Amino acid sequence: MLRFIVRRLIGVIPTLFVLSFLLFGWLRLLPGGPAGALLGDKATPESIASVNKVLGLDQPIPVQYVKFLGRMLTGDFGNSLSKSRPVVDELADAIPATVELALAALIFAVGLGIPLGYLAARRKGGLFDNMTIIGTLVGVAVPVFFLGYLLKKYIAVDLGWFETSGRVTAGLDETKVTGFKVLDAILTREWDVLFDALSHLVLPAIVLGTIPLAVIVRITRASVLDVMNEDYVRTAEAKGLYAKTVRKRHILRNALLPVSTTIGLQTGLLLAGAVLTEKVFVWNGLGSLLAEGIERRDYPRLQAMILVIAFVYVIVNLLVDISYAIIDPRVRVR
Amino acid sequence: MSGIATQKRDKIDALAATAATDEGGVSLIVDAFRRLARNPVAIVGAAIVLLFVLLAIFAPLIAPKDPTVRYLIDEIRQNTPLPPRPGFPLGTDENGRDLLSRLIVGSRQSLIVGVMATLIGLVAGMIIGGIAGALGGWVDTILMRFTDILLSVPSLLLAISIAALAARPSQWTVIIAVAIVSVPIFARLLRGSMLAQRNTDHVLAARALGVRENTIVFRHMLPNSLSPVIVQATLTLATSIIDAAALSFLGLGDPDPNRAEWGSMLGEGSRVYFDVRPEMAIYPGLAIVIVALGFTLLGESLREALDPKNRR
Which residues of chain B make contact with A265, given a CB cutoff of 8 A? Predict the structure, then answer.
């Protein structure tokens, strides 16, 4: 097991290396280079030259790359242009917000998706099955931000259910412990804050969780159908086990293996979807930072954000891989 | 390589493998079409796609008004779109232009965005995948490493990073950003199904007969490897239109105010007007959902029909 983890860890290094190289090149592909992007319309050849000198952009490219790599490794991403705040501080505030949202979305998707997919498979070809399949197809076809605005307008504003924006109501007396609002509220036993935070969390989590939900339903359904025809299920039935035991111990447990793979695959979707969802619900996480960075063409921030998001993605991958190895011993051999 | 890229890769390779089987008797394509014509899901999907294409082609003839003329600009207060009135069944946009006409004409630009993005991704991906699949060996290894890295970045983030590079966003920066996302998928797909073709009996037979390698690749391997690529292209049409809308929403879309395109109408409509006049977003939004659904239904049923496992 340890050897497997070490091997995986080593496998991550080239990916991160190539990513950093691409990102380094990315900023240099900009018209006028980073200095041009920094100065915008005010750029003159002289001002570009002086900014280049300050930023060390007049040095040879390999030297610049090594320095860039060094700064990224030590977490020094520079200041963001728009707020002149260290990008690291912005990230530190944003990461718990996005993780909280993504986790809530995942709980929604998994908690609803596995039962729905399982029931659809049990009633294959029936009305419930067909409705579920149609639902998953529609769920994938609706642009994430469009769904967000629909729910925000027709559920939060018109019906007055749940909150429309932000993570907690301003002016609420809350204590910061970890930065995760829900967790903080539970830890400090501030039940009013907990209720408030949850009511802010519901709609964004549903919006962000919809596409993963559709995917999980379909995979669960397909996987349960596959397993139901396996010999060992027939054997279990033949030897007279209760139908309930067969379903729980033989069908569901085996069917969930491919599902857990899919859940890991959703992290990328969640991170990308967060950019859109957070903008709709004014959720101050990574997605909002990224969207704001795009609007203001704040390249230092964008560069750091993309690297951090890619890093998170790669690390989550790694964790998912390791968890498979724990669930399914066959993976370790490969 | 990270695990998720591995999984994405495996999924693509599984689709590629559906092209690998040797078939005798009735051709798979003919058989697939016969099954497709009996499948109600496929018919609904095909009907939606057909209607959409017809609408896009004949849009200027169908649209009751000129989509670029600011008919009611004098009545617009504080950039607020006007509600429906005689002659303007869906009301106007913030510039006093007829919303219905803009929606109808918008189908054309949306089709162009979807088709161009898919086509560019398809061609680039097929060149990379074709070279990798035809040559194999170290060329294959290097090219597939490259696609694996692209696959390891979440697709929308990749599109955002590319679109954000453009100094002056235009329709083409959107199309190219969306297209690049699908390049590694097409590349891997074609490469997978071509490698699977390599060891089939008909390719071995051709090689034994002394057919030249070029002819084998272009006449024997390539045509037999295309069906999963066609399936993927149909599905990509749907995602391209949705991704283009997302870029618009983030402010990376087509800045031309005269051009009507569903993605940018939805993006702008959501961002700016959802509280005042949600219809500005809802009409183009529904249009996108229906068209994306059409392409998805068609693509999924094509996949089923072309899968040799489903032959009786």
Answer: 4, 7-8
Query: Residue B251 is nearest to which of A29, A138, A294, comparing CB atoms?
Result: A294
| Contact assignment for A146 to B300 by CB distance below 8 Å | no
- Shortest alpha-carbon distance between residue A17 and chain B (Å): 11
Please tell me the pTM assigned to this model: 0.82
Taking an 8 Å cut-off on Cβ atoms, the answer to whether B296 and A137 are in contact is: yes
Return the axis-axis angle of helices A2-28 and A61-73, rounded to nearest 10°: 130
Q: What are the structural domain ranges in chain B? A: 25-74+94-310
| pLDDT at residue A116, rounded to an integer | 93
Q: Which residue is it, tokens 């991906």?
A: B125
Contact at CB, A11 and B1, closer than 8 angstroms? yes
The larger pLDDT score, comparing residue A207 to residue B258, is at A207
User: What is the arithmetic mean of pLDDT over A13-32?
Assistant: 72
Question: Is there a contact between A146 and B266 if contact means CB atoms under 8 Å apart?
Answer: yes
Average pLDDT value for residue range B203-223: 85
B6 falls in which pLDDT band (50, 70, 90)?
A: low
Which residues contact residue A101 at a Cβ distance below 8 angstroms, ignoring those fewer than 6 apart?
A201, A204, A205, A208, A274, A277, A278, A283, A285
Average pLDDT along chain A? 79
Predicted pLDDT at B26: 58
A-chain CB neighbours of B284 within 8 Å are none
pLDDT: which is higher, B52 or A169 = B52
Which of A90-99, A159-168, B242-251, B284-293 shows the lowest mean pLDDT across its residues? A159-168
Interface test with A, best of B1, B268, B274, B276 (most A CBs within 10 A): B274
Considering only A185-194, A266-275, B92-101, which range has the smallest mean pLDDT?
Answer: A185-194
- CATH H-level superfamily of B25-74+94-310: MetI-like (1.10.3720.10)
Backbone angles phi, psi at B92, to 5 degrees: -125, 170
Mean pLDDT of A85-107: 85
Question: Are A316 and A267 a contacting pair, CB within 8 Å?
Answer: yes
Q: What does the alpha-carbon distance between residue A319 and residue A312 come to, in Å, rounded to a whole number?
A: 10
Measure the CA–CA gap between B52 and B38, rounded to whole angstroms.
22
A165/B275 Cα distance (integer angstroms): 13
Q: What string of H, E and C letters represents the secondary structure of chain B?
A: CCHHHHHHHHHHHHHHHCCCCCCCCCCHHHHHHHHHHHCHHHHHHHHHHHHHHHHHHHHHHHCCCCCCCCCCHHHCCCCCCCCCECCECCCECCCCCEHHHHHHHHHHHHHHHHHHHHHHHHHHHHHHHHHHHHHCHHHHHHHHHHHHHHHCCCHHHHHHHHHHHCCCCCHHHHHHHHHHHHHHHHHHHHHHHHHHHHCCHHHHHHHHCCCCHHHHHHHHHHHHHHHHHHHHHHHHHHHHHHHHHHHHHCCCCCCCCCCCCHHHHHHHHHHHHCCCCCHHHHHHHHHHHHHHHHHHHHHHHHHHHHCHHHCC
Query: Residue B239 carries which side chain, given as an amino acid letter?
Result: T
The answer, yes or no, to whether ipTM is higher than 0.90 is no
Q: Say if the Cβ atoms of A149 and B152 lie within 8 Å.
A: no
Q: Do B154 and A15 touch (CB under 8 A)?
A: no
pLDDT category at B120 given cuts 50, 70, 90 is very high
Predicted confidence at residue B288, as pLDDT, reads 92
